[in-house]
Write a structure and sequence with these properties.
The complex is a heterodimer of chains A (265) and B (325).
Chain A (H helix, E strand, L loop, with lengths): L1 H11 L2 H25 L18 H5 L6 H5 L1 H21 L2 H8 L3 H37 L11 H30 L2 H22 L8 H10 L7 H25 L5
Chain B lengths: L4 E10 L2 E11 L3 E6 L6 H8 L7 E6 L2 E2 L10 E4 L11 H11 L5 H9 L15 H13 L5 E5 L7 H16 L3 E5 L3 H7 L2 E6 L2 E7 H6 L3 E7 L5 H10 L3 E6 L2 E5 L5 H10 L4 E8 L2 H8 L9 H6 L13
Parallel strand pairs in B: 3-8, 3-9, 6-7, 7-8
Antiparallel strand pairs in B: 1-2, 1-4, 4-5, 9-10, 11-13, 11-14, 12-13
Classes of the chains: A mainly alpha (265), B alpha/beta (325).
Chain lengths: 265, 325
């Protein structure tokens, strides 16, 4: 298992993955902080949420957790990025034919898949750390530029930042595992990313509107709730259990398919 | 010692297409073994089954004495290049090999050894995306050599190589075969197979046509003597003279005659022509090449079988072990 993880980590170190993932993470972390502190008005009406973005309230921004509120607001962006890179890592093995070489060298396919998952989870930890660091560095400047004076930000800053990092990381693991499963099923990064993004931006909204009882149970909502540390509609523990269930189902489906499928790529 | 590869009634179907059909054969350990057959003959499917990539529909097989139902038992002793080299294009050649070495729990020093073996030392820091087809092919062979395999399976190993590279890789494969390793080479280049292989397996439509030494197969190949009279007008008369002397004579081309006889008959043919007052401008004793034998064996079919044809029009298999049908 360790051998599979070490092997996968070498392949993940390619320039396109490192620069692409890091670049998008930095971009979203900067962008969302700038936008949040401009769009949300102190004492004003709550800002209208957009596709993939849920703006915090003014009170939340001024609270001690306000310094990391950008992470929650942009969780879907970070998530889609994670989904895309997990899908890319899995699908490119098929499109390049590398999967032939990997399975011939390590025929225990469950082990191969678990090793890939673990390596991607480690890479995701790196992306999460980067997002948190950039967010913490950018948020004070963005707040000042927006005319905010968040005096409570210095209170319990370590547990606040750590908690936000863990929440974001868990949500990215769910996103990533879904991307891995979609890519394993479709053997195409493009299709997997298309399905993932299309689901979050379109299908889930339509489904949630059509069947309101489903809204809090759907993956996008679950992941957003997990990243936000819980909401009034869905508790953090509920989101965690649901998120783990989605991870388990996605991992099981991709494992069964990968272990049983002929390698003809 | 067990065979390098042994199959018993091995069969694989894809829908209505029978890719490998009731294949029972064994490949000896050591030496370079050619696996040949027209496109769609089941070579790739056979290789994929041996590597654990594709499961058989029926039958059994063993690789290095271990059943293919448990490929992890022999994966560490098998290296393969299947249907072209496959790498991460954005990574360097070295990083790609290091990744595979780690997967196989091999020391990184092994990477330098295989890079040297295929002549890529000095180019190993370059991204694979900048490699030519020939360099990628070399890298693919290097990857297959990583585990220092007892069984090496290479699909079209010289594809894309320049003439010097072809000679180099052929010498490498022959060295590996002589060192006791089993090298299975799947190729469409019969001249390549003839020049480096000691043993040959011929399949068509998933059915075994021949399994034996290249020498045995060529020993059964036909021989003939091609003659051309100095003056084309003498061709017909020369044909009569040779036929009267008891030889079977055909006319492969205007002004040329083909006498079905072994090479030793060339002198007698020459004497017969001279006795009739005909001067020859060409006299060549020729043995059928592996290519012509292969084409006779496979009915000259180089194309892929259609889905229905694979199952319906397949020739009835005969006992092919150790001989051509």
């Amino acid at each position: 298992m360790t051998a599979v993880v070490r092997s996968e980590l070498v392949r993940l170190r390619r320039r396109g993955v490192v620069l692409g993932w890091s670049g998008l993470t930095v971009l979203f972390a900067v962008l969302v902080n700038v936008v949040v502190f401009q769009v949300v008005e102190p004492g004003g009406a709550p800002a209208e949420n957009g596709p993939g973005v849920s703006f915090p309230s003014a009170a939340e921004l001024l609270g001690r957790e306000g310094i990391v509120s950008g992470l929650g607001a942009a969780a879907s962006f970070f998530g889609v990025t994670a989904l895309a890179f997990w899908a890319l890592a899995a699908a490119s093995d098929h499109s390049s034919g590398l999967v032939r070489v990997l399975v011939a060298a390590e025929p225990r396919r469950w082990r191969l898949l678990l090793g890939k998952w673990t390596a991607l989870a480690l890479a995701t930890a790196g992306a999460t750390l980067l997002a948190v660091v950039v967010n913490v560095l950018v948020a004070p400047g963005a707040a000042a530029a927006g005319g905010w004076e968040p005096t409570a930000w210095g209170q319990d800053v370590v547990p606040v930042v750590l908690g936000a990092a863990v929440d974001l990381y868990l949500s990215l693991l769910v996103w990533g595992t879904l991307g891995l499963a979609l890519a394993t099923l479709t053997r195409s990064a493009g299709i997997a990313i298309g399905i993932g993004v299309g689901w979050v931006l379109l299908l889930e909204a339509v489904l949630g509107a059509a069947v309101s009882a489903l809204r809090d149970w759907l993956p996008g909502t679950t992941i957003s709730t997990l990243a936000a540390g819980g909401t009034a509609d869905l508790s953090y523990s509920g989101a965690l259990v649901l998120g783990l269930a989605y991870v388990a189902v996605a991992a099981l489906v991709s494992g069964v398919v990968f272990s049983r499928r002929d390698i003809t790529d | 010692m067990t065979a390098a590869v042994a199959t018993a009634s091995l069969r694989r179907t894809f829908g209505s297409v029978v890719a490998v059909d009731d294949l029972t054969t064994s490949l000896p350990r050591g030496g370079v073994i050619g696996l040949v057959g027209p496109n769609g003959s089941g070579k790739s499917t056979l290789i994929r089954m041996l590597l654990g990539l594709v499961r058989p529909s029926a039958g059994t097989a063993e690789v290095l004495g271990e059943p293919i139902t448990d490929p992890r038992a022999y994966a560490g002793q098998v290296g393969a290049l299947v249907e072209g080299p496959a790498f991460v294009p954005g990574l360097s050649a070295r990083a790609n090999l290091v990744s595979l070495a780690r997967l196989r729990r091999l020391p990184v020093s092994r990477v330098d050894e295989v890079l040297g073996a295929v002549g890529l030392t000095g180019r190993d820091r370059e991204p694979v995306r900048r490699f030519s087809l020939g360099m990628k092919q070399r890298l693919g062979i290097a990857a297959a050599l990583l585990p220092d395999p007892a069984l090496l399976v290479l699909d079209e190993p010289t594809n894309g190589l320049d003439p010097a590279g072809i000679v180099e890789i052929r010498a490498l494969l022959q060295d590996l075969g002589r060192s006791g390793r089993t090298v299975v080479v799947s190729s469409h280049l019969l001249s390549e197979i003839e020049s480096i292989c000691t043993h040959l397996v011929v399949v068509r439509f998933g059915v075994l046509l021949y399994n034996g030494t290249v020498a045995d197969l060529l020993a059964r190949a036909g021989t003939h003597v091609d003659v051309a009279p100095e003056h084309a007008a003498d061709t017909e008369r020369l044909g009569r003279v040779l036929a009267d002397a008891g030889w079977h004579v055909t006319t492969p081309a205007p002004g040329r005659l083909r006498v079905a006889a072994d090479g030793d008959a060339a002198a007698a043919v020459n004497r017969a022509a001279a006795g009739a007052g005909i001067t020859l401008r060409a006299l060549t004793a020729t043995r059928d090449t592996l290519e012509s034998v292969f084409l006779q064996m496979t009915g000259g079919d180089g194309g892929e079988p259609a889905a229905g044809r694979a199952a319906a029009a397949r020739p009835v298999p005969a006992a092919a072990e150790g001989g051509a049908r």
